[in-house]
Write a sequence for this structure.
C-alpha cells in the first residue's frame, strides 16, 4: 500500500504567516505539532497578551498590550519549545500601514512615544507629514506601538 504524502499534508495544520507566536521559540520548531494547547502560557502571562487562536494554539494579541519579555510563558510551559540562548526573543518587527494619521496630515507620535527601543523614526519636513520609519535593527517586536496607535495602523509581523 502506497502512502500518498500530498493527501496526508492536506490534513496537517500549517503555520499561518500572519500569526505571532510566543517569544523564544526554537527556530526550527513546528509549533503546532509540539504545543499541547494546555493554556499554561496564557495563564502565566502578566500582560494578558497571549490568546488562544486558531485550533486553540496560543498566539500574541498586541492590541491589548506589549510583550515585556518576562519569560513567564517559557517558565510555565512543560514542553520543550523554547531556546533562551537566542540573542533575540523573536524576529518579529513592527509594520506601519498607510492608515497612519501622519499620512493624512494629522500630527501623531503615539507609537514613537510608547517605543522604549526608539525604533520608530519620524522624518517630518515643514510641508509634509509622513508615517514613521521602522528602524529594523532597533525594533524588538514588543508591540508597544500597536496598542498605542489610535487608528490601528501598526501591526507586528511574524518574520519566521
Amino acid at each position: 500500500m502506497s502512502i500518498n504524502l500530498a493527501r496526508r499534508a492536506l490534513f496537517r495544520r500549517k503555520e499561518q504567516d500572519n500569526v505571532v507566536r510566543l517569544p523564544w521559540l526554537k527556530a526550527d520548531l513546528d509549533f503546532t505539532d509540539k504545543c499541547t494547547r494546555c493554556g499554561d502560557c496564557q495563564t502565566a502571562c502578566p500582560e494578558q497578551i497571549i490568546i488562544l487562536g486558531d485550533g486553540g494554539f496560543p498566539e500574541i494579541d498586541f492590541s491589548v498590550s506589549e510583550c515585556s519579555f518576562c519569560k513567564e510563558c517559557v517558565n510555565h510551559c512543560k514542553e520543550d519549545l523554547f531556546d533562551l540562548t537566542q540573542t533575540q526573543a523573536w524576529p518579529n518587527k513592527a509594520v506601519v500601514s498607510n492608515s497612519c494619521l501622519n499620512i493624512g496630515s494629522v500630527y501623531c507620535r503615539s507609537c514613537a512615544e510608547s517605543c522604549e527601543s526608539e525604533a520608530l523614526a519620524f522624518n517630518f519636513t515643514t510641508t509634509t507629514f509622513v508615517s514613521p520609519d521602522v528602524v529594523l535593527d532597533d525594533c524588538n517586536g514588543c508591540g508597544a506601538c500597536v496598542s498605542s496607535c489610535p487608528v490601528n495602523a501598526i501591526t507586528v509581523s511574524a518574520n519566521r
